[in-house]
Amino acid sequence: VSRIIWRESQLREGILTKTQFGLAAVFLCTSALTASAAGIERSAPSTRILFEDGAYFELSASIANPSLSGEGGLLATGSTGDLLKTFATFGVAYKGDLNDRVSYALILGNPWGVDTLYPDRAGSLYGGTEASLDSYSLTGILSYDITQNIKAYAGVVGQYIEADAAFPFAPALGFPGAYSVDAEGDFGFGLMGGVAYERPEIALRVALTYYSEIDHTLSTTETVGAASFDDKTDITTPQSVNLDFQTGVAANTLVFGQIRWVDWSDFAIAPPIFTTGVGAPLVDYEEDWWTYTLGVGQRFNENWSGAVQASYEPQTDTVLTTLGPIDGRVTLGLSATYEFDNTKITGGLSYTMLGDAENFAGTQYDDGSVFGAGVRVGWSF
């Protein structure tokens, strides 16, 4: 009884309200709108939708325009030119309730991706070097409210990936001709699970979520000059852990953030012919990546809210792949949400400063950046 009386007094005073608690659904992981993540990751997975009230359906899309060039080293006497292509991602999600304690969610998206193409430039042997990796994932989650404050959830992740790459400068690596690889698509499955603690009266939530690695075996055709070789390439997408947190700090004001770890040191793409000829995988990372995000959300009135956030990913200072030489980043994001009836629309903009990197040939990649934009539309039922 005393708890109910205290809660009602807080609501009357407007210190922390359910409306404020709803800011979490608007702002938490806003960075997912702007397609920026470590390694080959395009969008980090999120369980945000599990905390929506009732039935909820959501569509999202984002576009990113990266800019990065290298200079010098064994294969370039001048600039390589901009090597990263503009890309887009999408998302579809639905959450429903089976009863007062059990809910479920389906989440479709593009977790991984590569779009690299080096232009032809005088003084650069990289011209025509390219890589493409596309992916789709479908995650099914069941959640159970153990108590009024504790929620547990688990699910299955189905994932599809396909990839190809070409290295016209392969003769400089000792190959008898230009090298290319075409890997057919493959499905793989993994698991996820986590637990969350909530105190709605102070807009507090802490959620810890684990995503397992997923194994793929891709049928691969490697071509060197005029000769082709059919084989298989094993790829294991990395396991990861998300720690999401939020709390109300004043009337209609929310502080939120995330700490994310991805096990990139165990990830590699190693076609047999290329790996044997070069003595190293096509793509690999020597270190794991940690990403830290912190933001503040503010509700201005019953229709409009806004948020700012910053993300930091420390540099690993290791030699990186020519197909994605990015080591660390700092991202600044801004978003706004408009709510009316059963609909809420969130738009976000971001600017990312990419960390400096070096590839195996000693080419230096400096002063890279990414402009991102995204939109998310959700309907409650």
Name the helix and strand elements from N-terminus to C-terminus, one letter apiece: HHHEEEEEEEEEEEEEHEEEEEEE
DSSP strand tally: 20
* Class computed from helices, strands and strand pairing: mainly beta
Q: Give the strand order, joined by hyphens, for the main sheet.
A: 1-2-3-5-6-7-8-11-12-15-16-17-18-20
Largest sheet: 14 strands, antiparallel, barrel
C-alpha Rg (nearest Å):
23 Å
Euclidean distance between termini CA atoms: 31 Å
Rough outline: globular
What does this structure look like?
The structure is a single chain. By secondary structure, the protein is mainly beta. The protein is built from 4 helices and 20 strands. It has helices spanning 2-13, 18-21, 23-27, 272-278; strands at 56-71, 87-97, 102-109, 114-117, 130-145, 150-167, 179-199, 204-211, 214-224, 227-237, 240-250, 253-262, 268-269, 283-284, 289-299, 304-313, 329-340, 343-354, 357-358, 364-380. It has a 14-stranded antiparallel barrel with strand order 1-2-3-5-6-7-8-11-12-15-16-17-18-20. A two-stranded antiparallel sheet has the order 13-14. Strand 19 (357-358) and strand 20 (364-380) form a beta hairpin. The longest helix is centred in the first third of the chain and has 12 residues, at 2-13.
